[in-house]
Design a protein that fits this description.
The structure is a homodimer of 359-residue chains. Chain A is of the alpha+beta class. The first copy, chain A, contains seven helices and 24 strands. In chain A, strands 6, 7, 8, 13, 14, 16, 17 and 22 form an eight-stranded mixed sheet that branches. Chain A has a five-stranded antiparallel sheet with strand order 4-3-2-1-5. The longest helix of chain A has 14 residues. The first copy, chain A, is globular.
């Protein structure tokens, strides 16, 4: 084991409150116990004692490296926790979803705006994105209830879809309001990565999304994998060439993409294989762009890539692009990524409609 | 004084940590001191001791009424706090901004999509909205730094605007994921109202907003008034008739709007007067719609109405609609609402551009 490989999450031991842990095969290492015993260096009291990683995220990259470097020698003797009750790893502040795959943006433009240019004029100039609902980001394994909505009559969605995405979790001291994070400094603010399933109700989305963007067609649930994998654990390759070259505030030397093989499994069968290396916009560019207007990025913020689709049939990241039927109740979707584990969800039937009438 | 009139906020006395308070003229009543003395009934320990109202919001409407009913007799003898350091009253979970004024949606559609139908087909069927950035909602008085962004070259916005809005703060136990809040029960989840200035950079917004909606043109700052006014303190009138009638999940008997006179002041001169009673969609409809897909509304979530514009010249809620020049550095904007106080902000010059280059 090297510290670099270890992923971070939150585990509740039987009858005890949840605390932070790193995964080790079928068990986890109790980070709170290690920290209390003084074996992780000079950390603030209780940094791993709470129900999420946020206090650790807030410490920033030097502390992350310090813990990572100390862990390998502690693995043998560290207190273990069972994985029976793995919780949401992060209290998410703001959740931003980008649209960074050229292939996906082109495919969806064609489907949602037939007859017009699929890629809008701004797409190659900035990482297009929007804010999603932080309060409905759930951990892998959470059942996904089929949402109701206007399609445009009100009822359970008939077009429940998935979106295969990569997410990154922000940490470090927040930039002051009004002060952008330079693109060359952005990677230092990225703690690690998760897999993201951005569940989507296409009928609701199509009816509601103009002019202010996706809303209830997305906000019913977004699943993330339970273990946050440090950015350093993932292989890098040169990022795709951008044409036209990006504006200066988005430009770095040595742009990299993450070389993460990805797959979508539906009811036990793999239906798509792709790789995150094809994303047009890089993670540092997303963070630099998001803060380019002075917006604060707080520890615990989640950025997602948008659907990752490849250029060839069978490499698309959503059912609508794959040309497959939408999800049925009882369907189970598992997204997997090399070194990232999985994010899993099973569709449950729509609930009763809300009570109506009265004052 | 009746308890109904009192508004809630957070105050830091000199050299002490912030705690919850209610405003009383030029001072505030220390709610934490009252609660510790047992004078506010049977409340959880420390509910007013923290830096925001969220623990109190979470208790729900019965506790809000209990405190409200006890306060009038305590006013005389309650410990007072100075108003020198008034803080952000709420830790906002998710911030949703609607588009509920027919006049504003029509005006903006005309400006942003000239030559096509200004009101899109969905507008009269659902309260159109989007998620904003919770982490950049700031309290009244916070300076607003002119944002940079793609316009489409990168630089300080040349079209800095305001949006006059009414916001409401959600409380009560959250609805379980997957279970909508019925429209008839929605008002019970609304703790109170604030004024909202949704600062907007129109040049950035125009270039970026398709197809996923407003993003960096809005996310640099949103100001709210410091004192949350309980919903019961505000006068109600019958809501405007909706045509076509809304779907059943959005329909209640006795729909009401808030009769709140509003004004926009720029550098000491009132430039617009309007009233919140003209909003097409009601607050209960916004909350019922937001949760209609099963999304959770958490205590501390902020909902804003969208710009409030009237039908007559001089009653519009933004500079672009008023046909006025955009904001200059040093300009001060104050939004006022009857019983709601004010939200104030002064524009400061853009900061230095982010460092560029490097790896």
């Amino acid at each position: 084991v090297t510290g670099r490989e270890l992923s971070y999450g939150v585990v509740a031991p039987p009858g005890e409150p949840p605390r932070c842990a790193v995964r080790l095969g079928d068990e986890a290492i109790d980070l709170d116990a290690l920290a209390r015993a003084g074996r992780l260096g000079d950390l603030p009291d209780g940094v791993f004692a709470g129900p999420n990683l946020n206090p650790f995220l807030a410490l920033g990259a030097p502390a992350w490296r310090e813990v990572r470097d100390r862990l390998p020698e502690l693995v043998e003797t560290a207190p273990r926790l069972p994985l029976d009750d793995v919780r949401m790893p992060v209290a998410i502040g703001d959740y931003v979803d980008f649209y960074a795959s050229l292939e996906h943006a082109t495919n969806l433009g064609r489907l949602f705006r037939p007859g017009s240019e699929p890629l809008l004029p701004n797409w190659r100039h900035l990482p297009v994105g929007y804010h999603g609902r932080a309060g409905t980001v759930v951990v892998s394994g959470t059942p996904i209830r089929r949402p109701r909505g206007q399609r445009p009559t009100y009822g359970p969605t008939e077009q429940l879809d998935i979106e295969l995405e990569l997410g990154f979790v922000v940490g470090g001291p927040p930039n002051p309001l009004g002060e952008p994070v330079p693109v060359a400094a952005a990677a230092e603010r990225v703690f690690g990565c998760v897999l993201v399933n951005d569940w989507s109700a296409r009928d609701i989305q199509r009816w509601e999304y103009q002019p202010l963007g996706p809303f209830l067609g997305k906000s019913f649930a977004t699943s993330i994998s339970a273990w946050v994998v440090p950015l350093d654990a993932l292989a890098r390759v040169p990022a795709p060439v951008q044409d036209p070259p990006p504006l200066e505030y988005l430009r770095t030397e040595g742009d990299w993409a993450l070389d993460v093989a990805l797959e979508v499994e539906l009811n036990g069968a793999v239906i798509s294989r792709t790789n995150a290396r094809g994303l047009y916009w890089t993670f540092p560019q997303m963070l630099a762009h998001l803060t380019a207007n002075g917006a604060v990025a707080r520890p615990g913020d989640l950025f997602a890539s948008g659907t990752i689709s490849g250029a060839t049939p069978g490499s698309e990241g959503s059912l609508i692009e794959l040309g497959r039927p939408f999800l049925e109740d009882g369907d189970t979707v598992v997204l997997r990524g090399a070194s990232l584990g999985e994010v899993r969800g099973t569709v449950t039937p729509a609930g009763a409609p809300p009570r109506t009438g009265g004052r």
